[in-house]
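haha ok so turns out i had the wrong file open the whole time. this is the CORRECT one, sorry everyone. sequence first:
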Amino acid sequence: MSEEKKQKDKFSYEAKNAWLEMGEDEREEVFSFNKEYADFLTANKTEREFVKAAVKKLEAAGFKNIKQYEELKKGDKIYVLNRSRALMAAVIGEKELTDGLKIVGSHIDSPRLDLKPNPLYEAGELGLFKTHYYGGVKKYQWVTMPLALHGIVVKDDGTEVEINIGEKESDPIFFISDLLPHLGKSQMKKSMKEGITGEKLNLVVGSIPVADEDAKEKIKTAILEHLNKEYGIKEEDFMSADLQAVPAFKTRDAGFDRGLLAGYGHDDRVCSFTALEAILDLGQPKYTSMILLMDREEVGSMGSTGMQSHFFEDQLANLVDLYYDSYSELLLRRVMQNSKVISADVNAAYDPDFAELYAKYNSAYLGKGIVISKYTGARGKAGASEASAEFMAEIRGLFNNKGVIWQTAELGRIDEGGGGTIAKFLANYNMDVVDSGPPVLSMHSPYEVVSKVDVYNSYLAYNVFLEN
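then structure:
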């Protein structure tokens, strides 16, 4: 390389391909880490499943439910549950809480199909479940594919029944039919948005009728008899159930070189898993380090388990009380205003088949590391917070010094769309917040794709942020 080119490169910025920055041992670590992530993602496709598995990992690492503590001191490891659908975990640091916390916040919900409160009906010699889609989905992507049913049914006496059907090879799967092309002349004239409507996302769940002449709906009756025999539930129990139809796919390696990982729910469980692993691998941090694994982000973060609830603020107040043996609003506000946050959420990976929708010089690419996003939002940056120049400098300086491979990007071209994260809700507490997570190809589809090296650099990024 010429001296002139060296000098030019010294002042230029270009995102690096992370694979080329790694030796053979590091690559093996990337593949090993992603094997664990892939298994975790395959096994935990709902918020409840993720939280349950996360608690198991936390407890194995010495974390205890905050209810077991009467006071908090340096080195204590705690977690807090919110209705089995959201989770906070923290390691108490060397510095005072009022010096601020280091927080990595992500979300564990993903686009899916929820069963309606009264889902079961019979039509055309089939038994079907009515669904209501959750989050931003392209409805046509959910038809004619194997689906599994996950969740819980809570009876009126409080008994909980766990449901997980469609993941084992011996299980039946469920599916949504589509119109055959021979009869699709009118359908094919519609827009992609209108070709499959929300009310047509109905799961086929059975077809064998009961041999009972008195039964008016023989297939529906047969399905109810089966559910009662196998799970002890009746039709009314659906009204107090959290049941989700999700893709019955395993997370799999993609590409000849196995550098990519295809699976359901990378958005945003890839950030939640890497944040979880980051706090599990902490030693004694300088500042109190916390992860937030929140629910409901895909529908605006509203509700008791979303970031707009008072869960975070209430539990932070609880931490202050247990740490200082007293509580005041002033103490809580000092903790908040001195805290720093990575809003761990994914960005859109550049797709060469749709290049016209991406900003050429401000796109995220698979294999170039974790993305730092100064802002999200739509149109004129609407609906999002924006990281300060000072905090952006702090984050990229930290990543540079600790060997984290990173890139920076927006979410597509201006006025072509946009999106938001939980960042703005945390920023409202007067915290420094920046969005940072790996890029995802085919985001919000039933089968998303990430680069293994980006997943690993996300783990490294969250770990060094919490540790320093």
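The longest strand covers residues 112-123.
again sry for the mixup
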